[in-house]
Amino acid sequence: MPLDPRAKRFLDMTTVMPGTGAARPAITERRVALAKLMQFAAADRISGTGSEGNFALPDREIPYRLYAPSVANGTILPGIVFFHGGGMVAGSVVTHDLVCRALSEESSCRVLSIGYRLAPEHRFPAAIEDAIAGIRETARHAAALGIDASKLAVCGDSAGATLTAVACQTLRDDLDIALQCLICPVLDFAASWPSRREFARGYLIDEATLAADLADYLPEGIDPADPRVSPLRAGDLDRLPPAIIHTAEFDPLRDEGDAYALELAVAGIAVDHTYHPGMPHNFHALGGVLPQGREVLKQIGAQIQKALG
Description:
With 309 residues, this protein is an alpha/beta fold. It has one domain: Rossmann fold (3-Layer(aba) Sandwich), CATH 3.40.50. The chain has helices at 5-14, 27-37, 97-107, 126-140, 142-145, 159-171, 194-198, 207-217, 254-266, 291-308, and strands spanning 51-56, 61-67, 77-83, 110-114, 147-157, 179-183, 243-250, 271-280. The radius of gyration is 18 Å and the shape is globular. The model is unreliable at 16-21 (pLDDT under 50).
């Protein structure tokens, strides 16, 4: 089907935003552009404001923001560790606050949003190290956080979904993760997928921005085909958690998300894959202009609630 008319109007407007043109965006422009974009997030139901905290590690602290749904009442609930998008160079617990509040309320789960280190100040594998440590620390301190460690999901959007996939692959034999949820995921930088070529410009996240993000993120000598960069290329997908995957028709990253859903299913992993016709990348965070953005947050929340029981 064609691009949703409301989405088209919005994309036409965003072509003047820094970081959406043909030139490589400066890192400050990239961060400001994402923060502005996330102001269009909206949801029909949201939890209360989150509480700030830190996981203290021997060499650093990992900040987080913890959310509780209105049904919490101090009880132990299933938990979601959330990783924000932004190409590993932008985004924060602040930019994705409303998305996390909506997921918490719609799933009836506590959501812990991780403030992982960003490139280029902290290049690969810093974000992965923080993601893995954040999941481990959440499980370790689950009771104090009000989370049932046996019902722990990991979720991320865009580059946050990359971290989700990599962390689940890395921790599969060490930690019992109940569910992974990937929203418009970035999963393969080692191939030129048709959707990346077809939607290279004018569809919210473009070829120049993706290339700039990767250059800022990867130190010299790291192969983009490394499964820690491109988790679709892991090969062995056995023993991974069940997956919820959402992809969008007009997303440059659509094909790799669709491929990962298929590869997981072939490996015997339970996959609930939803393909959204007419939608661009990041539409779930555009509920202020796209009703489908609000609806998909409801859908994802319901899927997670059902999966975690």
